């Protein structure tokens, strides 16, 4: 007799479960630098009340950096924060061409007071590979600016340094004519693409400042274009992994320590102020002022 055992029924193939793996986060869980976002007024009051070590002194801040990095926009942003409204103190180019042609000093008038803040900012034409065929001449002019020998209105010439016979040469600079803080302004998006000649020029300028004992810091601009999480919420700025990596790379390339590099979101498209953007600008400004004050204290001693 044949077997009556039944054949096992065929089983359906196992289902493949596709699990979605989210992309790695662009932000750290915790910020790697603290900003007191909710207390802009305290930082603003600190700037308003600040006094240099000696009465009548001014902290002179010299901005330099590649073309289009945002030096002029930073000056306008500082003025806007201090005045509590959008201001245009210096003209800004919307292209990568250099708009600033001359050595200029900008003062900042106190709101509703017939007086000025005890710091000034100097702007100069930007660095660009090919713009300064004779880099050595340009660096010599920067050295003269650091020492206070260059007067407002001087047009930098890549072919020849400022001569002592030039009407823009200051033969006897006082303490207020000299630079007290050197600030490199860098487009955060271009750190990995900085031209070799620009990096060498920044190094050369830093070396001149170091010989004079002048403190040096850097400002990263256009951070909203660098990281989508910052563009979404500026409070992610010091959580951003992308920004931290860019700062570390720049620090290694030019030798400026990480704690001397600051991020700002300049006002260039906005028509109204943001408390969070103001907080970043004030954080950078107070650090720059403190560095200049410390340098003046050293000179005085």
From TrEMBL:
Q: Name one GO biological process term.
A: immune response
- Where is the region Disordered? 1-21
Compositional bias of kind Pro residues:
9-21
- What's the protein here called? G domain-containing protein
Q: Which gene encodes it?
A: LOC117727144
